[in-house]
TrEMBL record, chain A:
Keyword Transferase: yes
GST N-terminal domain segment(s): 4-84
Protein name, as recorded: glutathione transferase
Source lineage: Eukaryota, Viridiplantae, Streptophyta, Embryophyta, Tracheophyta
InterPro entries for the chain: Glutathione-S-Trfase_C-like (IPR010987), Glutathione-S-Trfase_C_sf (IPR036282), Glutathione_S-Trfase (IPR040079), Glutathione_S-Trfase_N (IPR004045), GST_C (IPR004046), GST_C_Tau (IPR045074), Omega/Tau-like (IPR045073), Thioredoxin-like_sf (IPR036249)
UniProtKB/TrEMBL annotation, chain B:
Substrates-to-products reaction catalysed: RX + glutathione = an S-substituted glutathione + a halide anion + H(+)
Pfam families, per database record: GST_C, GST_N
Organism this protein belongs to: Coffea canephora
Enzyme class: transferase
Taxonomic classification: Eukaryota, Viridiplantae, Streptophyta, Embryophyta, Tracheophyta
This protein's name: Probable glutathione S-transferase
GO cellular component, one term: cytoplasm
Family: Belongs to the GST superfamily. HSP26 family.
Molecular function as annotated in GO: glutathione transferase activity
Keywords: Transferase
EC number(s) per entry: 2.5.1.18
Amino acid sequence: MAKEDVLLLDFWVSPFCSRVKIALAEKGVAYQQRGEDIFGGKSELLLKSNPIYQKVPVLLHDGKPMCESTNIVHYIDETWPSPPLLPASAYDRARARFWADFIDKKLFDAGGNIWKTKGEDQAAAKKELIQILKYLEGGLGDKDYFGGDSFGFVDIIAIPLTTWFFAYEKFGNFNVEEECPKFAAWTKRCLGRESVAKTLPDPQQVLEFVSMMRKMHGIE
Amino acid sequence: MEETGGVKLLGFWVSPFAQRVKWALKLKGVQYEYIEEDIYNKSPLLSKLNPVYGMVPVLVHNGKPISESIIILEYIDEVWKQAPLLPQDPYERAQARFWAKFAEEKVRQSVWEAMCSSGEEKQKAVKSAVEAFEEFEKELKRRGTKFFGGETIGFVDIVAGCISYQLAVHEEVGSIKILDSSRFPAISEWIKNFLNHPLINEGLPQKDQMFAYFSKRSKEIASRKMSHKTA
C-alpha cells in the first residue's frame, strides 16, 4: 500500500484523531497526515470532505473521504482485517459497539463539563464522570482489555480520551486513580503499547491547550 | 432468562427505537417473541437486561441481551444473513453508518426537540430540523435510488424510517411544519415507498393514540423545563 493512498486530516490534541492513528498503527498501515488549523482556517479539502460537520478526523482512502472517528475505526478494521480489532462473535461485537457508543455519548462531554464550569455545576460534572468510569470498570471486569486478552476496538475508542484527564483533574481538583483504580490500571496498561505511546499527546500539553480554551471561553 | 435459543424483543408500543428492531426482524423473516414494557413502570427484567440505560429496545438472543437500536440492527444483520441491511463494501458500510447516525442524531432528534420546545428554542430547533432534512434530501437525490440502500430497504432506511409514520404526528402536536413536499420531494417519495412495503406498514401504532401520547409527553417535558427555569 503506497503511502499516498491513505490520508488523515488531523488535529494534534483531538482524541478522536488519535483513535484513527492508533488503529492504523495497530494494523501497520502507512499513511500521510495533514494537520488542520482548527482555529485559523480549515482547509478546503476538510470542508469538501466533511461538509456537514466540518470536523476532524477525516480519513481519505484512495481519495474517498470518511468521517466520525468510531466509524473510521470500523472501516479500518474491515479494510485491513489483521490483526482484528473487533471480537469474533456477533454478541461480543455488539458488546464492543455498546461500550464504544457509551463512551462516545458520555465521556468527552462529561469531561468538558468539568473544565467549562465551576461550583455546583462542576461538582455535578465530576460526579457524572466518575459514574461513567465506574460503568466502564464494570465493562472491563477482570480482563486486561475491554475485548479480553488483546488490545482492541473499545480500548482504542477509550484510551485517547484519557490524555484529557490530567486537565480534568487539575481544574476539577480530584484524582482518577483514587476514584477508579481499575480504570487507571487499564490506562497504564494501554499506555505501555507502542501504537498508543507513540500517538498520544503529552497530557501536560493537553492541559495547556485546555487552559487556553478556558480563557477563550471566558472561564476564569 | 435462563433458556437458550429463541429471540425476544422488549419494546414499548410507540418507541421508534423498538420499531426499528421489529422492522429488521420482520424483513429477515426472524420469528420473535415481543414483550411490551411499561417504560414508566420498568420491570426488574428490563433493569437486569439493560443495567446501564434501563431502556427499550432490548433484544435477547440465546439468553443474551443486546441494547441500543442501531447496535441491535448490526447484530441482527450479522447473525441472520438473508435480506442484508448493510452493504458488503467497507466504504459503503462507512457511508451507511454515517447516514444512520445522522438520521438518528440530526433528523429524528431535531424533530423531537422542535415538538417539545417553545418560543426561541422552538424556532432554533425547527431551523436545525429543516437543515437536517435538506442534507438528507440532498443525499437521497444524489443516490437516486428508491431507498437509501438501493432498490431494497436497508440500514439507513430502517433507522430513518420512524419519520415515515411519526413525523406528521410530531408536527401536529408541536404545531410545526418541517416536511413540505414541494421542498423535499425525494424524502416525500421515499416515505411513500417505505410505507408501501407490507412488512413496514404492518402493526404500526394508530395515529390518534400516538397523538394523545405525544401531546401528553410534550406537555410533561415543557412543564419540566419551566420548573427548572423557575427553580
